[in-house]
Amino acid sequence: MSDFPTLKTAAVMQYPAQKATNYSTAIVRFLDGSEQRFRQYQSALRRWVVKLDLLDETELHQLREFFRTQAGAAESFGFTDPWDGTRYPHCSFDGDLMKDTLLDDSHGSTSLTIREDRG
Amino acid sequence: MLYYPQLTTGSVCQFPVSREVKMRTVTNDLFGGDTIRMADTGCAAVRWQLRYKNLTDGEWSALEQLFEATEGRFGTFTFLDPTDNLLMWSEDWTQKVWNADPLLTVTVGRPDALGGTSAMQLTNNAQATQSIAQSVPVASWFQYCWSCFVRSDAPCRVQLMSMTPGEEQVQEIAVGAQWNRVAMPAHLSTKQDGMIFGIQLPAGFRIDVFGAQVEAQMAAGYYKKTVDRAGVHSSTRFDSDALTRTGDGPNQSACVVNLMSNLS
Fold first, then answer.
1. Are the CB atoms for B175 and B107 separated by under 8 Å?
2. What's the predicted TM-score (pTM) here?
3. Using CB atoms, which residue from B44, B224, B263 is nearest to A61?
4. Where does the pLDDT of residue B41 fall: very low under 50, low under 70, confident under 90, or very high at 90 and above?
5. Could A74 and B23 be called an inter-chain contact, meaning their C-beta atoms sit closer than 8 Å?
């Protein structure tokens, strides 16, 4: 399984960077105001928003090719969380669309959202 | 065959360029957070938005003629992606798209110019010049730049070539011990569909090569690695039935062109 590519600086993300931890809770509310809660996820799932700017054409092309070979959201890949260095082996793109803009040959930008999947 | 025109500068577009790749995945989300996903590869498409300023009347006319020939979104043409490499398998010349002469040996897995091991060693075992080349379905009369990284343990001279039936351009280059990116601007006068880009080695020579790239422009841009897909989109369409020209002055026009092509 392939890994999300790094930039020439060996970084995977730039500031501002976002990371979210997601749970899923089912709530049943009763007429008397009480409620029961059910845990639907056995453990949390992570999500990262990777916003990249000032990429050169080589870096941007590498990301485009990676997105294409992953068939958008269809395939799984490994992603190393830059905050704590943990490698999450089962991740995928959270969407089938990748937009990018080249202002000049060394000023490309794009944004991708990566989600952790269950193994 | 119809081709999206180049500007008089030899480039296909101006900055900024926006590009959008859209895939389709059929997803079944389960309560526990598991997902079952399946790619619908037939739906994959790429879109470009090209913004032009200061077009001459001739450049505008070429765009307008193509738009009229395709009747807006109806017909297709070949578009050479200005953000991509027009050669396939830029780091693996053992693939079928590369045609090597019989006595030219290609060895992969050599140290490359970017610190990896994706270079190839070309060895000419013959008593005559041998070549390796790739055929690309592009217009022969466009401006191209063919480039690659080369080095050799023993200094030598090799030839970069670009050709189409009836015409050939060759440029001799010196190869030294250090990695060097060499480039050859190619511009043929013959009007043919299809061109061949390659490299010729004299008898008995051995060189390391890496990062083959062809772009539809005057000079080499940043290197872009390709595998099974290159930047030649032979069934591209306009993504709009209207093409609007803004006149900013005599012989100065501006417009925005939206294009789309399937990726399947």
1. no
2. 0.92
3. B224
4. confident
5. yes
